[in-house]
Amino acid sequence: MASMFQKASTFLGGGDGDDPRKQDEEGESLTSVLETDEDRSSLTILVSEITELMRRRLVDTFDPKQTGSQDDHLSALASDNCSESENLEMLSDEEQEKRAQKVLEKQKAEFAKREKEVSKEEMVTLKASALEFFDGWRDAVVLRVGEVVNSRKTAAKQSKQADPELASSETEPGLEGVEADEHEDTIAKALLKTYPPVETALCKIPKEKRILILHSVLLLLLSLEHYNAYSRVLLLHLTTSLGLSATVLAEDETKVAHGLLSAAEKMSADDETKKRAEENRTARRWKMGVAGVAGAALIGITGGLAAPLLASGLGTVLGGIGLGATATAGYLGALAGSGVLVGGLFGAYGAKMTSKAMEKYTRDVEDCAFVPIERPGKTEIEARRLRIAIGISGWLDDKDDVVKPWKCIGSGQESFALRFELDALINLGNALTTLVTSAAWSYAKSEIIKRTVFAALSAGLWPLGLVKASHIIDNPWSIANQRAQKAGEVLADALINKAQGERPVTLIGYSLGAKVIYVCLQQLAKRQAFGIVENAIMLGAPTPSSSADWRRIRSVVAGRVVNAYSANDYILAFLYRSSSIQFGVAGLRPVLDVQGVENVDVGDLVKGHTLYRHATAPVLKRIGFEDIDLREIRREEDRLAEQEKKEEEQRRSAESGGEKEGADPEVGEGEDREVRRMERDVEQMKVSE
Question: Distance (Å, rounded) from C-alpha 329 to C-alpha 345?
């Protein structure tokens, strides 16, 4: 038995004193790519330093000193004294000192508030749980990579060499293969900013070998029998550190997904195969612990555990980029020999998930399902990916709007739309359309602009005519808002129960779709479910912007948290007027004092709340979202312009109609006539549906 372990370790590059140039005759392995002890040490140390960087960012989420964008924070502190800097030189030394002291006291008070927030028992527990999960994942990753390129003992030693005070490389390695296109440049900049490269000597080796390193680490991460959000973030840091583009990683993920699923599909599904898979699953833990080298050791012990998948061509499919077939199977470990494990990785339902399959997760929400966003000309296996994106619409003009806004998501992810409460969201869409095209709203908007949306919120400065007509929008908004709360809880339940497998999830939503995401992430934090969500992108979110809420969100998202807001969103302000505005509204302002939350002002793109439906693609383009269909962006930009023009024409028509009828939006009979007209329009829309 010992000689078998030694042989496996030798092949994978393990064992101090092994011949580092020994390689599989079918192709490359990490031992042939990393030719020297220094190279092999560099990879283990690089992985360790990246995970240390990731851990420090997680700690910063709960650090009251880390406030994210300092410019935003300082601007907010000085907002009530905006003219101070201009007149500072005109003040006496004593007055300048008093004002400086006032600012300092304000800063101290806000710091004390944050310190109190993060010291609460709930937040302390959340931090401890998040770090415990992360540390368990990190230890498994570092040892798994280290034992393949070195020995387990050496790996453990090298992992401790990671500098806890490491800084990312001062120079940004060029992203080879990234097109000169402006959009690709935006993606590259966002990638480097969010996942800064860590300095390593490995970036100097030939590009084809760096690609093989990235590919090998992907397989090693999959051998842990999951591909969680932290694993994906690690690979993004590795991608920038090796001077590669996100496209290289995305293409590799696609090839691996196809290879695994194609091979698994060909496996026999008879009882004997299932029985053997269960036996292997039970025995695997013990064998991995004894061997210390998962993949090759298992192949040796079982006399061909990986044979079913290898016989189906897994090694050939995945070896096509240069890595040897045996190395491929060895790095994948038990995953290479079990269709059961492959199925668990991609989810029990995947693209076949329907409302019936979702019944076990639903409680108070009717009509809830993941709707696949189909890729024309793609077979079911060709459409599968190692990552998924879920788009969530916040209101609907018709049932097709469940999917339409999310066709802009690129092919690098398997994309779904979350459908929930169709009737409630269509009713809300009808009411919104009626409101924004009314003479009453046109008048209200002109009055609000004079005072700013925040003054209108805090002082209730809404025209009487609009308040009279408010029931037209308030009822459908209230109903849809409650359903969004429930849908968020259902979504969290489905993700925790691995309805979509063990793959990193990106959540994107506008309006009440963003509310669904907000609630889902709060639930994940409450249930301490980490490593599931890679990115969360919320547009025009009708949610509080309080730092405590967003700190919880930040703790359960491994990658990017984006809050896209518009201070010009008067409709959101009106809809939110009766809520607890002291906590702020995320869709109207930046979220302050939480490290790692990206605040993006989209006021120039989104002139009103109803335009978010067509602004999803342009906003994703602006933030440098890595997976987006450029053709859909152009289409949506055209539709956004058309919708804005259409709403303006409808408003003018409503205003001119009101003038002909003598309708004054502020007084008497004309005001009531306008309200009755709006009510009639809503009723007609209901009938037409």
Answer: 16
Shared domain check, 618 and 553: yes
Other beta carbons less than 10 A from residue 584's beta carbon: 21
Average pLDDT, the chain: 78
Helix (H) or strand (E) holding 599: strand 597-601
Three-state SS at 117: helix
Give the model's pLDDT for residue 9: 37
Does any domain span residue 232? yes
Residue owning tokens 């335009």: 611
Asked if residues 348 and 237 have their Cβ atoms less than 8 Å apart, the reply is no
- Could you tell me the two tokens for 575? 């809809």
Model confidence pLDDT, tens digit, residues 88-143: 556 677 777 888 888 888 888 889 999 999 999 999 999 999 999 999 999 999 99
Residue-range definition of the domain harbouring residue 317: 2-61+129-345
256 and 378 co-located in one domain:
no
Alpha helices in 150-244 (DSSP H): 152-159, 182-194, 207-222, 229-241
Domain boundary (313, 345, 377) is at: 345
Distance CA 491, CA 222 (A): 25
**Minimal CA–CA distance to 198: which of 135, 242, 145?**
242
**Considering its fold, how many domains does the chain have in total?**
2
Higher local confidence (pLDDT), 410 or 294: 410
> Can you read off the two tokens belonging to residue 253?
């993920």
For CA atoms 233, 237, 239, 245, the dihedral sign is positive
pLDDT value of residue 308: 53
Indicate the pTM of the whole model: 0.83
Residue 504 in domain? yes
Q: How far is CA 500 from CA 233, 399, 504, in A?
A: 19, 23, 9
Decide: helix, strand or coil at residue 390.
strand
**What angle separates helix 422-436 from helix 630-660, to the nearest 10 degrees?**
50
Query: Is there a contact between 636 and 408 (Cβ–Cβ < 8 Å)?
Result: yes
